[in-house]
Design goal:
A hairpin with a 4-residue loop joins β9 and β10. It is rod-shaped, with a radius of gyration of 44 Å. The chain has helices at residues 2-100, 105-109, 117-123, 164-171, 233-239, and strands at residues 126-130, 135-140, 143-148, 154-156, 159-163, 174-178, 183-187, 198-202, 207-210, 215-217, 223-225, 228-232, 244-246, 255-258, 263-266. The protein has five helices and 15 strands. Helix content is 46%, strand content 24%. The longest helix is centred in the N-terminal third of the chain and has 99 residues, at 2-100. Among the domains are: 7-39; 126-267, Copper amine oxidase-like, N-terminal domain (Copper Amine Oxidase, Chain A, domain 1, 2-Layer Sandwich), CATH 3.30.457.
Length: 271
């Protein structure tokens, strides 16, 4: 019996020992599984991050390409506009002398010898408004001055429409606006070539009345664009006794149309 008890005891110890080893192996296996899971998770996260970075880089690359394309288009538009403006200036510069020489110089010689140099210079001064441009040029024997406007010159029913403010400036008039009657009031006090009087232009009807009681009907009604009253420069000038025609007809006139350039010339000291 004692021998059996010892064997049983020995067997129990051996079983206990085997159980401890088994528990140890199980713990090691658990650690290996956790490490494997952790590594797998890290790899999956890395793959997801790499894919996200790849997509982000593709999006950035696409946006960069779009920005470069837009930048190129804007540059081409700017260069095209600069090219057109340069071409216009070159044409204008080349023809300035010829246009100035169209004047009757004898008219200047007949002027009173007491005239100031400014008056002589003004005789050969003119302004040029080009259609669809937001500026005009004042040209005389000393060169060219560019005046910028906040609106563009345009053509309506064959008439060149210009803001009344600049019509007045180039003809040597003063202009005011009467809001109560909705009239633009032109006054000529300085231009000695055209009639010295006042002209009231109704901006709704286009009817013009002068201080002599005469009534004129504009064939194109005034138009308000961006708060600026546009009117036909030839209609207003004619009411002051000015002439108008084509630049190629060989005549000296107050308002001259140049179809080749799509531009109107204003010679304020020519009747």
């Amino acid at each position: 019996i004692k021998e059996l008890e010892e064997k049983q005891k020995s067997s129990e110890e051996e079983i206990k020992k085997l159980k401890e080893e088994l528990d140890k192996k199980i713990e090691e296996a658990k650690k290996l599984i956790e490490e494997a899971n952790k590594k797998s998770k890290e790899e999956l996260e890395k793959q997801a991050k790499d894919e996200k970075d790849k997509n982000l880089n593709q999006d950035l690359s696409k946006k960069l390409d779009e920005l470069l394309k837009l930048q190129k288009e804007n540059k081409e538009k700017k260069e095209d506009k600069e090219s057109q403006d340069k071409k216009w200036d070159e044409i204008l510069k080349a023809d300035d002398k010829n246009i100035l020489n169209q004047f009757d110089l004898n008219k200047m010689k007949k002027q009173d010898e007491q005239q100031s140099k400014k008056q002589v210079k003004d005789e050969k001064e003119f302004a040029v408004f080009q259609v669809d441009k937001n500026f005009y040029n004042i040209i005389n024997k000393d060169g060219k001055t560019t005046v910028y406007m906040d609106v563009k010159t345009y053509v309506d029913q064959g008439r060149t429409m210009i803001p009344v403010r600049y019509i007045a400036y180039t003809l040597g008039f003063n202009v005011e606006y009467d809001n109560s009657t909705r009239e633009a009031i032109f006054s000529n006090k300085e231009n000695n070539i055209l009639a010295k009087k006042t002209l009231r232009l109704n901006i709704d009807t286009g009817v013009m009345k002068d201080s002599d009681g005469k009534v004129y009907n504009s064939d194109v009604k005034p138009v308000i664009i961006n708060g600026r009253i546009h009117a036909s420069i030839s209609n207003i000038a004619k009411a002051f006794g000015a002439s108008h025609g084509d630049i190629k007809d060989g005549k000296n006139q107050t308002i001259e149309w140049d179809n080749a350039r799509k531009a109107v010339y204003v010679f304020k000291n020519v009747k």
